[in-house]
Amino acid sequence: MTTADLGIRAEPGSFRDPANRVFHLGEQVLRGLGPQGTADWQALAASGFFAALLAEGKVCATSAVDPATLPDTGWTTVLRHERIPFVSHPYEWSFGMLRDAALLHLEILRRALEAGFTVKDGSAYNLQWRGATPVFIDIGSFTPLTEGEPWAGYRQFCQTLLYPLLLQAHLGVDFQPWLRARVDGITPDQLRPLFRGVRRLLPGVPTHVHLHGAMQARNADASSSAVAAQLRDAGYSRQLALATVRRLTRLVSRLDRRVAGSHWVDYPRTCGYTTADRAAKESFVEAAVAAGGTPRLALDLGANDGRYARIAARHAAQVVAVEQDPAVVDTLYRALRAEGDRRILPLVMDLADPSPGGGWRGVERAGFAARAHADVVLALAVVHHLAIGHNVPLPEVVDQLVGYVRPGGRLVVEFVDPQDPMARRLLANKPAGIFPDYRRDEFTRLLTAHCRIERRCELPSGTRTLYQVVVGD
């Protein structure tokens, strides 16, 4: 009998460390450990620093499972982890999110080193989010420290956390497309040509880009054990490792996103809603989210400043607020972080080009469509941007929005009439008559083919209509 026959589903993104593997059994998130992983876990579970991290919520809640309660998995030990409400990827985070994730990773490494442990990895994928609060999830990465060993995760940390931050802080270049292109992150060879001349001297660049790249090239043919031996012979120690972590922490904490102009930052003021329209829309959305109990997950697609995500969070357990502009998402994130919010997760994503599957076999990092199955989906002021702004046929837009909703869930969607000022602004750059099917009656017909319309509301301005529909019940 295979593990699949027992209802066990291996996590596609967990296979690179042969000592442990994450898998799912029903709603449970489990981690199997081999003999070495079991020994590491036993040492970790007995340590004071790990108990403190658990109590502070900085690592995901984890406990050993009684083997008698599980089918035979073949692992020596099985751990149970808390289920993260929504799994996201670093290329969907804003600058502030990536920086705070990096700082948490460094804090955990520092505290591990002080207690005689280390973490084998340094990847941004080792972190997830409870709302606007980062949490470290790779419990299998902890291992007792061997004195004189360098931090094996330094390269990963640079490529998936530090380099993207340097790219945006020093050059004003959004890092998200770079991280999305390669699951292993940005290499020194990719970054060095951008930091020549006086840019070579920018904070963090001489040591972590140029020197690191040169050392990688020099030791390209050497084994990791040989490099470690060279460092030990040169007097490398835990105290030197701690000093490096503290310097990295100071560097990362001082980096900040370059402030640049953004059309979408000012969108709430320029979008054309009257006071009456806004009040009617907020009332409609709140009633729709509250209908039918407490949603486990709500999506706000095209969230902008988070106004409607906050309304949804009054009723839903978790809200994912998706917005295409990194600056807008960063502003929202910083506000939520200051509030200590644990319900709203803001993400950077263009709905016309959502995150695809990536990594090994295209499934190591699941695409957005594979992750986004919500009880409630808000699609407010989105349809016209996709249909007119991006030339996506209206039936395709409806199919995609409906596809984000779990069967029996609700879609709250807004149709913006071609005569609306915002729609006319988009149409001004298009050939006349290019969208003959972009009409309210056609949109209603398409919705009816997929869903049951529960409520609709025409906003007082007369050019926008809200629909509350139930999908597939």
Would you write up a description of this structure?
By secondary structure, the chain is an alpha/beta fold. Strand 7 (127-130) and strand 8 (133-136) form a beta hairpin. The model has no long low-confidence stretch (mean pLDDT 90). The relative contact order is 0.09. The radius of gyration is 24 Å and the shape is globular. A 7-stranded mixed β-sheet has the order 12-11-10-13-14-16-15, with helices on both faces. Strands 1-2-3-5-4 form a 5-stranded antiparallel β-sheet. Strands 6-9 form a two-stranded antiparallel sheet. It is built from 18 helices and 16 strands.
Radius of gyration from the alpha-carbon trace, in angstroms: 24 Å
Structural class determined from secondary elements: alpha/beta
Q: What is the β-strand count?
A: 16
Oligomer: single chain
Main beta sheet, described?
Answer: 7 strands, mixed
Give the gist of this structure.
With 473 residues, the protein is α/β, with parallel strands linked by helices. It is built from 18 helices and 16 strands. The longest helix has 20 residues, at 95-114.
List keywords for this structure.
473 residues; alpha/beta; seven-stranded mixed β-sheet; five-stranded antiparallel β-sheet; 18 helices; 40% helix
Topology:
Blueprint: E1 8-10, E2 20-25, E3 28-33, H1 35-45, H2 48-56, E4 62-64, E5 77-81, H3 95-114, E6 117-119, E7 127-130, E8 133-136, E9 142-144, H4 154-171, H5 176-181, H6 188-191, H7 205-218, H8 224-233, H9 238-254, H10 267-270, H11 275-290, E10 297-301, H12 307-313, E11 318-323, H13 326-339, E12 344-348, H14 368-371, E13 374-379, H15 383-389, H16 394-403, E14 405-416, H17 421-427, H18 440-450, E15 451-458, E16 464-471
Parallel strand pairs: 10-11, 10-13, 11-12, 13-14
Antiparallel strand pairs: 1-2, 2-3, 3-5, 4-5, 6-9, 7-8, 14-16, 15-16
